[in-house]
Design goal:
The structure holds two protein chains of two kinds. By secondary structure, chain A is α+β, with helices and mostly antiparallel strands. Helices cover 37% and strands 24% of the residues of chain A. In chain A, the strands form four sheets. A five-stranded parallel β-sheet of chain A has the order 2-1-3-4-5, with helices on both faces. A five-stranded antiparallel β-sheet of chain A has the order 6-15-14-11-12. A five-stranded antiparallel β-sheet of chain A has the order 7-8-9-10-13, covered by helices on one side. In chain A, strand 1 (9-13), helix 1 and strand 2 (32-36) form a beta-alpha-beta unit. By secondary structure, chain B is an alpha/beta fold. Helix content of chain B is 40%, strand content 34%. Chain B is built from four helices and five strands. In chain B, helix 1 (25-37) packs parallel to helix 2 (55-70). The longest helix of chain B is centred in the middle third of the chain and has 16 residues, at 55-70. The chains are: A alpha+beta, B alpha/beta. At the A-B interface, helix 12 and helix 13 of A face strand 3, helix 2 and helix 3 of B.
């Protein structure tokens, strides 16, 4: 026997039991028939059993069929149940009244059995289609909401990955930098970054991940992190690109790739070394106003093929020279007639913009693109990064020496031996050398004794540089983040009994050197010390 | 680092040769501590052959000076080179430890 739940349920409402018998006789073979002898009972059954269709008599005592229909349509639980009026009345005015109330159909009494069967069948089929359609709409809406949430997640990842505090390095007068990322509606995977890799080398990068949405945002996050960690120990843009490419292409099932520009600016000399991996050409506007295209491309997009050895180029930036790096969201922005913004417009705008701050340059570049695009939607992320030299370039050529030691106090002597040899070679005077010996003793002792919370062996990197008028020392360790120069100076005027032993070493370092700089770079503490020498 | 100790009248003269830093200070510290344990009252540390001193050496001098002040003794240092002089000045040690230009001067003034 067929289960009653699989058969459509029809509710018949009539105050004359004989009429109900007739309907029951016609439909009971195919449908599950429920009956109600007045309007109130009909409303209760409709609410509790949710029939698939209601056959409703109009002329009933207490509440008539019109009122029942009105109440059914006003109730969210019953409003979608099709109602067919069954009535002896045949005036067209009544029919119109019924349809106005939301009735599905009208059948005259006495009922014609085949007609009743056919109409019920038709309306049940209609109802079923409607239900399916609504279910489909619900699925679509849920999907749409999910996609929107995903888009938001992707955008949050993207925007949280790019530094956006300007001025970015207020303590540095040598250069200026400004950048902007305007994500498209559907995230395109653009990113930029800038960070110091030593006390006078600034690494900047701009990239554009192929693909869109959350996968692009995640890929961008991975790439950006890889670049930063690689650059912390490798100061060649070509070498950074080569290593990042190896890392990404080795395990890249989604076959995504990145167009990438990496530049390293020496903030005192103005030397700008760069690698272009399939990225749009950046432009340089010289202090005189002429614009140059940084044309070389040094290798394919990153992540596509392994084993690529990227090359690099170099350009000298003079005082007030500006570099403009961007993604194809600029050049490929379209107006309403599908015309591209194009490279020439970037160049023309760059030439025309008055030499004000880089923030103005970046804002007006975006503005120019947006005015051009007009009502056309932004199809891709837009990234603009501008960099400028603010000082006359200095000559920084000279000697350097690098050594790596273990975290063992005995190694301090080795560093001092290497330094003394270096100092002798460079003709650095004995009094200066002795002071630097003292500085190494203080700082290395601090690092070796306090920077590590474990008993493991760690490496400390020491770099010495000499340029004729300037001696620079940098010491990098991967210990716990610690800036030694924030320590309060000891009071050197107290009487003997009140004097404390702490803090003297750092006090000496700060006073015998001319500049002391602490930076937390990626996962390393980097202390840079400068001594200006008279020649 | 070489530490030589000799007597000049009632003064123990400690002559340091080399550098006084993280790695060498512990040896000098034990040499000086054994003198203090013996109840030495007049101590002169000669810096003539000392190339440089770092804060590790300063901490030893400070501890020694405090100890001798407590026991009514007298600590002097002499013959500081330019580097050591600067370190003494920067750390305010010239005000709390008697510094002499030469050993002769330090002993003559004792």
């Amino acid at each position: 026997m067929e289960s009653s739940t699989t058969r459509p349920m029809v509710l018949a409402v009539d105050d004359t039991p004989e009429n109900l018998d007739v309907v029951n006789g016609i439909l009971a073979a195919e449908y599950d028939i429920k009956v109600a002898v007045n309007g109130n009972v009909a409303l209760k059954i409709a609410q509790s059993l949710s029939p698939d269709l209601i056959l409703l008599d109009i002329m009933m005592p207490e509440i008539d069929g019109y009122e029942v229909c009105r109440q059914l349509k006003a109730n969210p639980a019953t409003k979608d149940i099709p109602v067919i009026f069954l009535t002896a009345k045949s005036e067209t005015a009544d029919e119109a009244e019924g349809f106005k109330l939301g009735a599905a159909d009208y059948i005259l009494k006495p009922v014609n059995p085949p007609l009743l069967k056919a109409r019920v069948k038709t309306h049940l089929a209609l109802k079923q289609s409607m239900d399916k359609l609504q279910a489909a709409y619900a699925v679509i809406n849920r999907q749409k909401e999910r996609m929107q949430r995903e888009l938001n997640v992707g955008r949050d990842i993207q925007m949280s990955m790019v530094p956006d505090t300007f001025p970015a390095f207020p303590e540095h007068e040598e250069f200026d930098i400004h950048a902007l990322l305007k994500p498209a509606l559907e995230i395109g995977g653009d990113f930029y970054d800038y960070f110091f890799i030593d006390h006078e080398k600034l690494c900047v990068c701009v990239g554009d991940v192929s693909g869109k949405g959350v996968p692009a945002a995640l890929f961008m996050a991975v790439t950006k992190t890889l670049i930063k960690s690689t650059a912390s120990e490798d100061h060649s843009p070509a070498s950074i690109a080569t290593r990042v490419n190896e890392e990404i292409s080795r395990d890249n099932p989604s076959s995504m790739f990145i167009t990438l520009f990496i530049g390293i600016l020496h903030i005192r000399s103005g030397e700008f070394r760069y690698t272009n991996a399939g990225h749009p050409y950046p432009y340089i506007k010289r202090a005189g106003g002429e614009v140059e295209i940084l044309k070389p491309v040094h290798g394919p997009v990153v992540g596509a093929i392994s084993g690529v050895a990227y090359r690099e180029g170099s350009v000298e930036l003079g005082k007030h020279d500006q570099v403009l790096i961007f993604t194809d969201g600029i050049t490929e922005a379209m107006d309403v007639d599908d015309q591209l913004y194009g490279e020439q417009r970037v160049i023309d705008h760059f030439k025309a913009v008055p030499p004000e701050g880089l923030d103005a340059l970046v804002a007006s570049t975006l503005n120019s693109v947006e005015s051009f695009a007009g009502e056309a939607p932004q199809a891709d992320d837009i990234t603009i990064l501008a960099l400028s030299m603010n000082i006359e370039p200095e000559d920084v050529s000279g000697e350097t020496r690098k050594c790596v030691i273990a975290n063992d106090l005995k190694e301090i002597d080795r560093v001092n031996d290497i330094f003394n040899e270096f100092a002798e070679q460079c003709g650095i005077s004995m009094p200066v050398s002795l002071r630097v010996n003292c500085v190494f003793d203080e700082l290395l002792n601090n690092i070796i004794s306090y920077a590590y919370g474990d008993e493991e062996e760690h490496s400390i990197e020491v770099i010495m540089g000499y340029s004729g008028t300037r001696l620079s020392i940098s010491i990098a360790d991967n210990g716990v983040p610690f800036n030694p120069f924030t320590r309060k100076d000891p009071n050197t005027e107290l009487a003997l009994a009140d004097r404390e032993t702490g803090g003297l070493g750092i006090h000496l370092v700060k006073n015998v050197m001319d500049e002391v700089i602490y930076q937390r770079r990626y996962n390393r503490n980097v202390v840079t010390l400068i001594k200006h020498l008279d020649k | 680092m070489d530490v030589t100790i000799r007597d000049e009248g009632d003064t123990k003269v400690v002559v340091l040769q080399g550098k006084l830093d993280t790695n060498t200070t512990p040896d000098v510290e034990s040499a000086i501590n054994s003198l203090l344990d013996d109840g030495v009252n007049n101590l002169l540390i000669n810096f003539e052959n000392l190339s440089y001193i770092s804060s590790a050496g300063l901490r030893l001098l400070l501890a020694t000076a405090k100890h001798m002040e407590g026991s009514g003794g007298d600590l002097r240092v002499c013959s500081l080179n330019e580097m050591a002089t600067e370190v003494f000045e920067l750390s305010g040690f010239t005000a709390i430890i008697d510094v002499y230009a030469s050993e002769q001067e330090a002993l003559g003034g004792a």
